[in-house]
Design a protein that fits this description.
The structure is a single chain. The protein is 51% helix and 12% strand. By secondary structure, it is α/β, with parallel strands linked by helices. It folds into 2 domains: 15-159, Rossmann fold, CATH 3.40.50; 227-385, 3-Layer(aba) Sandwich (Rossmann fold). The strands form 2 sheets. A 4-stranded parallel β-sheet has the order 2-1-3-4, sandwiched between helices. It has a 4-stranded parallel β-sheet with strand order 6-5-7-8, sandwiched between helices. Strand 1 (34-37), helix 4 (44-49) and strand 2 (53-56) form a beta-alpha-beta unit. Bound molecules: iron/sulfur cluster (SF4).
Length: 386
């Protein structure tokens, strides 16, 4: 471990990616509490304000599900089953508890299984609403207050307005820095590859926010000083999906001859593009950020306007990414049995294709088992848009 602390920037991110959880384990051994969470919908600011280490759970696409399926039906999405499989095998033995938000049926309907079989000292189901009107904001504020009271009871630490504001400010700083790092992908060729970026994103989600801030600062300095990576002749691709958290996917895209320059994935831009308003009362600001600003398909956005206006409200950010990052093709990578993302595929595809950017839709497991087939389809897609 002393070795990791001596590393800096991208080398450190690489190590944290490869040995995911190593820093959380060390912090736990030093007497800190570690709380696991799933999904971009979990308000990490509250975990930080309570003094625990937030640790985002991930599975392992290289490991088959061998125990999890004895607890969960196979129509639960493969990502959730794989993460649970890791959990039930004891891979997250260092977490004291976990938070699971109501993102989708795969999480909601399995929440009892997580709670009952992992035997954690703390478990909280965050009953996030799915519409964004005023009553839902009021409901969301109560949901956040309830979460605060349970984590206060568990830790014995009171979350004050000041501690919450400080945590919000830190997470906003973390997001601002991550966006600055993303900016370094706008050049042609980009200064950082999609796989390097994936390692940074995964490393950051396993660290306390103040350590993530320092790591991203070091990486920005590393990357800014680089010469362009290659000749700038490759197609510029955006990856869209839920929790894609393995370089095996990004490597497959980049080794097929593309630059992965942007994403709309839940450990990536979805986590880092929307700040919490620091001028508002913190609970309200958090409710608005997680319910109205976060772009995830499980929140129903209805502007009350035309179909086109509703599409713009739901997917307009993707067109902005396409313009800002000069995206030439998009890969929609959706997990099997993921209804929320699956239902949106036709609308997203036609919305993006309307701005003359081709879209490849892939539906797959959270597993490398079908990698060869996927690679062939990605290569064919890149040839098509060449
Ligand atoms: S991939 Fe889809 S079904 Fe699975 S957790 Fe994410 S939103 Fe839910």
């Amino acid at each position: 471990m002393a070795g990791i602390q001596n590393l800096k920037g991208l080398a450190k991110a690489e190590k944290y990616y490869t040995d995911y959880g190593t820093r959380a384990k060390e912090l736990r051994a030093q007497g800190n509490r570690v709380i696991g969470y799933i999904s971009a919908l979990s308000p990490v600011e509250i975990l930080t304000a309570s003094g625990v280490v937030p640790f985002r759970l991930k599975g392992n696409v290289e490991e088959a599900i061998t125990k999890g399926d004895a607890y969960m039906e196979t129509i639960v999405c493969p990502f959730v089953r794989n993460v649970f499989d890791s959990a039930i095998k004891g891979k997250f033995h260092f977490i004291d508890g976990m938070v699971l938000p109501h993102q989708c049926d795969s999480l909601d309907r399995t929440s009892d299984i997580w709670r009952d079989y992992l035997n954690l000292s703390y478990f909280h189901f965050l009953n996030v609403p799915h519409v964004t009107d005023e009553p839902s904001i009021e409901f969301m504020k109560e949901i956040l207050r309830l979460f605060i009271s349970t984590i206060e009871d568990f830790t014995g630490n009171k979350i004050t307005v000041d501690s919450l504001k400080k945590a919000i400010s830190l997470h906003n700083e973390n997001r601002r820095l991550m966006r600055s790092l993303y900016d370094l992908r706008k050049s042609n060729p980009p200064l950082i590859t999609g796989s390097e970026m994936m390692k940074v994103l995964v490393a950051a989600m396993g660290l306390p926010v103040y350590e993530s801030i320092e790591l991203i600062k070091e990486i920005i300095e590393d990357v800014k000083g680089r010469k362009p990576l290659t000749d700038g002749q490759r197609k510029r691709i955006m990856l869209i999906g839920d929790q894609i958290d393995s370089v095996i996917i990004t490597d497959t895209i980049e080794k097929a001859g593309a630059y992965l320059v942007m994403d709309d994935i839940s450990i990536g831009s979805k986590m880092y593009w929307q700040d919490v308003d620091e001028d508002k009362e913190p609970i309200l600001a958090l409710a608005e950020r997680y319910l109205r600003k976060l772009k995830i398909p499980t929140t129903f956005v209805d502007t009350g306007g035309t179909y086109e206006e509703n599409l713009n409200a739901r997917f307009g950010h993707m067109r902005k990414y396409i313009e800002e990052f000069n995206v030439e093709g998009a890969i929609l990578f959706i997990y099997k049995y993921c209804d929320p993302y699956g239902f949106e595929v036709p609308a997203i595809k036609s919305y993006i294709e309307a701005v003359a950017v081709d879209v490849l839709y892939l539906e797959d497991e959270y597993s490398i088992s079908s990698l060869a087939r996927m690679k062939t389809r990605i290569e064919a897609f890149l040839e098509m848009i060449a």
